[in-house]
Amino acid sequence: MITKNNLLSLRLISMFVLLLVCGFAAAEQLISTDWGYGLDLPEGYTLENKDGSSRYHFSHQLFPITLQIALYPKGDFKQASAALTFVTNQLASEGRQVSFPWRLRGAAITQLKFPGGAGWAASVELAHDKGWLVLACHTKPELATELEPIIISTLDTIATDRLSWREPGPMTAFAWADEKEIESTFPGADRTIRVPFNSVDSQANQSVIDREFSLLTSYLNTPFVYTAWERYYRIIYRDAFTRFEKAAFLMESFLPEASEEKAATLLAWTQSFEYVRDREGADFLNLPETYMNRSGDCDSRALLLVVLLKHMGVDAVLLISPEYSHALAAIDCAGKGARFSVDGKDYLIADTTAKVGIGLIASDMADPDKWFIVRFPEPELP
After folding, report:
1. What is the percent of the chain with per-residue pLDDT over 90, rounded to a whole number?
2. Which fold has domain 181-374?
3. What does DSSP assign to residue 376?
4. pLDDT per residue over 282-292, tens digit each?
5. E strand or H helix at 305
6. Which residues fall within 8 angstroms of residue 2, CB to CB, at 6 or more apart?
7. pLDDT for residue 17 is more than 70
8. Where are the beta strands (DSSP E) in 12-104?
C-alpha cells in the first residue's frame, strides 16, 4: 500500500478540508441542486467567479489550471457534441471531437488546442431532460502533458445521477470501452462458481490507479494531502464498482444470508490471497486483478472487500493508517470485537492480511487515532 515513507514526508500534515461556497451543496462531492449533477473534484480548486448557477470559473491553488463549467437548457442543443462545439468555438480550439454514449445518454469529449492553452473538455447530457453540462479544463500548452492527470481526473468525476458514483467516469468509459467477456472463479461452499469480467477491466482500473497516484503524489507537503488521499481511494472505488456487478451477484447466492456471516466468509477468502506488492509504481494492484489472481497488498484486498460487500447491501468503509503502513476494511454488521465509530455507526474491523477473525486487530495497531477513514458517499442528485 501507499505508506508515509513512499508518499508522505516524515512530518504529518494536519488535515484540511476544502469547502467551496459556490452555489453547490458543501460536501466531499459537490452537488448542483439546480441542475442535478455532481463533481468529485481534485483538491485545491478555488472559485474565481460565477454567473448564476450556469457558469463557473475555477482556478487551482497549486497548479496553473483553469476549469470552466457551463450549463445549457435541453432545448439549446440537440446533442452533447453541439454543446461542446459551442464552448470550444469560444476558445478557438482546434481539437477533434468524439461522441459516445455514457449513462445511456449522449456524451462528447475533445482535446483542447487553442492560442495560449491546451487541455481537455467534456460534454454530457443531464438526466430528466435538464440540459447539457460542459467542462473545459486547460493550462499552458507547455504544461499540458505534465498536468494531464489532474485535467483528466477533473473531467472524469462528473456524475449525472446517483448510480454515476458507482460507474467509471466519461473519460475512462470512452478510453476503455467493453470488449470480450472473460471468466474467473469463486470457491463456493459446494462447488466452484464461474464469474464473468470484461477483458478490459484490469487494465482500465489500473489506468485509473496510475493516473490518480500520479496526481496524489503532487499533493505531497501540502495541506491537501489527506483529503487527496481519501479521494484517491474514492475514485478507484468508483471505477471498480460496476466491474464487479455480475461477480458479486453470483457470489452472493453462495454466501450466508446474515451480514456478519457473509462478511466473515469473504474476509477469510481475501485472507487466503498471496501477499503481493508493486513498489515501483502506485503500490496498489487493481481490484479485478486482485480478485482473479488471488493476490494483493492490504489496501487492494480491503477495498475489494468493501466493493463486494456494498454490492451485497452491507455498508463498509476503508481505514488507512500512515503510521502503521496498513489498511483495513470496517463493516456495519453484528459481531464481537474491535469497532471504529463513524457518523453514528460502529463498524466492525476486518483485517484482510492477518489470518484472524472479524473484529480482531493486532494490539500494536489498535490506536484509533492512528487511522483515518475513507467513506464512499453516493449523494442523491435532484
Report:
1. 88
2. C8orf32 fold (3.10.620)
3. -
4. 889 999 999 99
5. helix 298-311
6. 213, 216, 229, 232, 282, 283, 284, 299
7. no
8. 30-32, 37-39, 45-51, 55-60, 66-72, 97-102
Specify the residue for cell string 448510480. Answer: 163
Q: What is the pLDDT of residue 282?
A: 82
Task: Read off the pLDDT of each residue in 26-47 and give the average, rounded to a whole number.
Answer: 86
Q: What single-letter amino acid sits at 116?
A: G
The CATH number, out of the four listed (3.10.450.50, 3.40.50.150, 3.40.190.10, 3.40.1000.10), of the domain defined by the range 41-156:
3.40.1000.10
The domains of the chain are located at 41-156, 181-374
> CA 216 to CA 194: how far, in whole Å?
36
Arithmetic mean of pLDDT over the chain: 92
Q: What angle separates helix 245-252 from helix 298-311, to the nearest 10 degrees?
A: 70
**CA–CA dist 336, 322 (Å, integer):** 26
Separation CA 34–CA 24 (nearest Å): 9
Asked if 132 contacts 77 with a C-beta cutoff of 8 angstroms, the reply is: yes
